[in-house]
Amino acid sequence: MASGIEVFTPVSHTLFDPADIINKNGGRPPLTYQSFIAIAGEPPAPIFEEYSELPPVGDTGEYELLPVPTVEELGYGDISQEEIPPFRGGETEALRRMKASLQDKEWVAKFEKPKGDPSGFLKPATTVLSPYLKFGCLSSRYFYHCIQDVYRSVRNYTKPPVSLSGQLLWRDFFYKVFFGTPNFDQIKGNKICKQIPWSENEELFVAWRDGRTGYPWIDAIMIQLRKWGWMHHLARHSVSCLLTRGDLFIHWEKGRDVFERLLIDSDWAINNGNWLWLSCSSFFYQYHRIYSPITFGKKYDPNGNYIRHFIPVLKDMSREYIYEPWTAPLSIHKKAKCIICKDYPKPVVDHDTASKECRKRMGEAYASNRLDSNSSKGKPSNLSRRKWSHGDHGASNSSIAKLLRTSRSE
Ligand code: FAD
């Protein structure tokens, strides 16, 4: 104002103003979805002002206007040979996509996470609106508002945390926690993050990053990430669990960095929040529940169509062995023109042994976190005392337990 310029800073990227929610919660961010919902209420209505054209840039004085950087300038190398992701950018496409999703009122009314097929790639099981929300091509308030319109026109509909509007509330939840948590994106100095002594193993990390773990379900997801920049939520669960507390015991920050670079919906608050969650470093503590890299995907896609699409070298592997090609006899490998260790790797770890070891190490880390917390405060820590109040992002405790029970390694 001193210069005679009025500054207007609207909160428009999230449903609610993070500062407002934190104030209402006594100066601290709500650390559970339920406590967030209890405080939040209904989000403000979206602003329905339409602009027919952007104002001209005007005189920029001594500053030069630069063109949009090329993909190469952004450091992504030669992408000319890459498969083009099937998602187009921009607001027009965002609105078209949202309308197409919401047109199916029954689908919206029955939407229930974590139900939905993570292997669906020709027709993804969720809206794929995350990249548009991330880049501001779609307003989360407008999306929320349009979902409410659908709810008003049907008799019954699912409710948060599992419903479609509940997903947008998850998005806001992570924004609120990050806003009020110093060092939210790291283990060091992050009060809500369990201190777990993750291992260093560059070879295993690179195999995971490059989709060469030897587990086709995991590798197909990592290749989809590299090619499309988007994968279904439960696919993200599978690979982040395997990297961290499930099998490889590698630091969640390393996996977070890979996602941050490659996701087209890469979002600082949501990505970090979910990595904290999946690594059982915060929010979710049932570390003994581990996704099997073999049986989890098979449940949704027994023929392995998803694997065949993203890993062409396995396209002719027989249905019986598509999730575990290393167990097939040589005659099957030859018939499929895919020899294990030559054309496709064998598993970098044995899942049964590795997951058992991970559970043991997580148990030790949790015990040591409890001890540290007891000795520093003289009482049990909030983290260890806090009862797990909801299951997965959107799942009830019992539904995620059921989901994982069918895919547990033991
Ligand atoms: P829909 O199911 O259609 O949901 C609609 C919107 O709700 C999404 O677009 C998203 O904005 C929001 N939403 C849905 N699930 C979540 C969730 N669990 N947490 C927060 N918001 C959610 N999502 C990102 O947008 N950016 C990320 O960088 C990101 N990183 C992730 C990392 C890991 C390890 C995991 C497990 C999940 C991550 N997610 C991230 C959350 C989730 O997987 C995606 O938001 C979702 O898959 C996007 O697909 P969609 O738009 O079809 O979702």
TrEMBL record:
Belongs to the DNA photolyase class-1 family. Its cofactor is FAD. This is Cryptochrome/DNA photolyase FAD-binding domain-containing protein. It comes from the Eukaryota. Residues 370-383 have a biased composition (Polar residues). Gene3D superfamilies: 1.25.40.80, DNA Cyclobutane Dipyrimidine Photolyase, subunit A, domain 3, HUPs. The record marks W198, W252, W275 as: Electron transfer via tryptophanyl radical. The lineage of its organism: Eukaryota, Viridiplantae, Streptophyta, Embryophyta, Tracheophyta. InterPro entries: Crypto/Photolyase_FAD-like_sf, Cryptochr/Photolyase_FAD-bd, Cryptochrome/DNA_photolyase_1, Rossmann-like_a/b/a_fold. Residues 166-363 form the Cryptochrome/DNA photolyase FAD-binding domain. GO terms for cellular component: cytoplasm; nucleus. One of its GO terms (molecular function) is DNA binding. Binds 1 FAD per subunit. The keyword Flavoprotein applies. The keyword Ion transport does not apply. FAD binds at residues 126-130, 167-174, 265-267. Keywords: FAD, Flavoprotein. It comes from Panicum virgatum. Residues 369-410 are annotated as: Disordered.
